[in-house]
Amino acid sequence: MLASVLETYESWDLRKVAIPSRSRLYRLDPIGIGTPLVESLTGYISRLAEAHCVNSGVLMEKELATLVNKEFGSANLHRIYNYTTALNGSGVMATDLVQALEKLTLRDDLCFLTLLTWDKLFPSRNLLRSVRAWCPSCYQEWYEKKQLIYEPLLWSLDVVRICPYHHHQLIFECPHCHQKNTTLAWRSRPGYCSKCGEWLGQILSQESANRNALKKNELEQRVWVAKAIGELIAATPYLNDALSSTAIALTLSNWVEQIAKGNIAEFARQINIPRNTVWLWCKGRNLPSLEALINICYSFGVSILSFLTEETNNLSLSRKLVATEVKTTLRTRSKPFNAERVKSYLEVLLTNKESPPLSMEEVARQLGVDRRTIYKHFPDICRAISARYVSYKKDYHKKIIEECCQEVRLVAFELHNQGKYPTESAVSELVSKPGYFRCKKVRLALREANRELDL
Ligand SMILES: [Zn+2]
Ligand SMILES: [Zn+2]
Fold it and tell me: For the domain with range 244-321, which CATH number is right: 3.40.50.150, 2.40.240.20, 1.10.260.40, 3.40.50.720?
């Protein structure tokens, strides 16, 4: 009996087991790589922060500051709020952050949460919008279906103005505190306002969707654009080197050949873009912006993915577009003056607080009536409409100047980072609205940035 007990003991293997290296932060899976709704890098940061039970700001400052070795980098989140949009972009801020995060999470796929793979494809200017945008219906739907709430990269592209799934315009302003959110903020949290902390999800009622309603053809175009961009984002991880700016010049030249027998001027006229601009694109001297390119693609009914990756033949301006043009011409032709109709239209317009307000010129165009005739009949209402428009334009101008200042500052930092001195002419070559250097405020912004850089 004793012998049988001794026999059954097994021996232990006491050799050390090879343990794979641990990541400092959770190796959180990014959402939706290879789909149109892939998550954005800033959205990933806020989910990662949430997983560690800290604010995004704390994560950025405590964990990423040491790894992002740039003055304008994440070390000082509160100083770069207005530029955090660049963290999802195709420049040095995104590169640094991807590298730093990959080190901490031991992942190797985070570049797909940014536009880094498009860095040689489209000019980075105006590629991303400067504030956070979202589709409240998407948030709400995910919430109700108990899915993860996150921030798709698609929403951050300036050219995407509509949710391709719910067909209503993206929202930029919190309905609770009426403030805009920066792309990444100290208290960023997917689905919630970073200013007041309220939930942003909501299935938009027919009524509110209608308030935002666009003209049918405009809506159609925007949905098409959002879907086409989504398709390109989804394909990007699988394309690797297939995406190149040379393809853009080649395909455009091919289209000029097909549409206008090689006549650039004629092609330019058809797509309504200056001839010299098209010439520079075809020669590969300049890159068209994503927005310009997608509008051209829309005109010919060819998706931007096909434009970049396939041979596109048998082109013709899509019939849809031609029909729209005809309709517009018909609408602008004058109709007989109907005082009652015009008056009630003007009154509704005046009580409607919808932004942006219309100019009297636009009102006249929509009514199909000469502006002077309307003024003659209803001078007071016309003046009120005009006054509101002028005041809106003033505010708008102020906003544009502020945006220019922010852009100038960012460009100055980028140039400095590349070892170049941010002179006025160097900066103005890179900003989207160089003409605004005429404004004192914009020039001051550059001086201020240079001072911050100790230049
Ligand atoms: Zn949606
Ligand atoms: Zn809010």
Answer: 1.10.260.40
